[in-house]
Design goal:
Oligomer: single chain
CATH superfamily: NADP-dependent oxidoreductase domain
Number of domains: 1
Shape: globular
Keywords: NADP, Oxidoreductase
CATH class: Alpha Beta
Radius of gyration: 19 Å
Helix content: 25-40%
Number of strands: 10
Family: Belongs to the shaker potassium channel beta subunit family.
Distance between the termini: 41 Å
CATH topology: TIM Barrel
Order of helices and strands: EEEHEHEHEHEHEHEHHHHEHHH
Largest sheet: 8 strands, parallel, barrel
InterPro entries: K_chnl_volt-dep_bsu_KCNAB-rel (IPR005399), NAD(P)_OxRdtase_dom_sf (IPR036812), NADP_OxRdtase_dom (IPR023210)
Pfam family, one: Aldo_ket_red
Protein name: Aldo/keto reductase
Length: about 325
Amino acid sequence: MEFRYLGNSGFKISEITYGNWLTHGSQVENDTATACVRAALDAGITTFDTADVYANTAAETVLGEALKGERRQSLEIFTKVFGPTGPKGHNDVGLSRKHIMESVDGSLERLQTDYIDLYQAHRFDYFTPLEETMQAFADLVRQGKVLYVGVSEWTADQLRAGSALAKELGFQLISNQPQYSALWRVIEEEVVPTSKELGISQIVWSPIAQGVLTGKYKPGAELPAGSRATDEKGGANMIKRFMNDDVLTRVQNLQPVADELGLSLAQLAVAWVLQNDNVAAAIIGASRPEQVAENVAASGVVIPPELLGRIDEALGDIVERDPAKTHESSPKERQA
């Protein structure tokens, strides 16, 4: 396992990070989830990402239990705040001071820890003054409940405004967590250049495009039983944008590149996002322990420029690059 600095800080994280969105507390049983976490630790992963909204707080509980007994100083535990949790009342959502301060205590209890290494604003809140949000984060840092602060799916302008306020308040934003894969490159035009300027790294989610880049979905074929594309709890909705024969055919055309590198298609996809020098880590998930070991093999892989060019040629114009997609990711209406 290789490690990278997160943003303009002295904080290092494993470049393969284990995340439990859509799995822990939902898709897989707790004992399987624990086995996946143990597999991650065995593979050298030290960084774990979750959120209070995942499975309505259950994912945090499962992760906290799975990590119990590990040396806390050897782990980097990330979580997020924004989404509706609990009974989903009128103050159970967003980035108000009230919701942040109440949410962090709940996360600390569920994760069975005294502090959170990286606390992230899960989306941008259009209904709370940014000054209020950043002041709450600054207070959590001073209280020692949070060591570092990051965000998720913020636009370039939002990153710039948040970073400026953070500096005024005596801390810094060091990370952004966007969706990023060879099929979904919407951060490249605006978010990445701005982040480099501000000293912010990307911790990217869905590097294998919810499983599409594994090549297991074949054009014109039946969906594999038990796959994310058949999961009506949320997985099928997330993956549907990629589930057409043109995309699936192009993905199959990546196989010769993977073969040349001695990688599976999944490993190629994870290695691809790590070629971007603004990416500090790729988040992987797993429903089986063996999936962890496979994806970890992408750590340290260098893809030569010629093969990166062949990947671009194979995927062609099916790649989504519109930077406006980041703006669309944050809700413009209250969820509760």
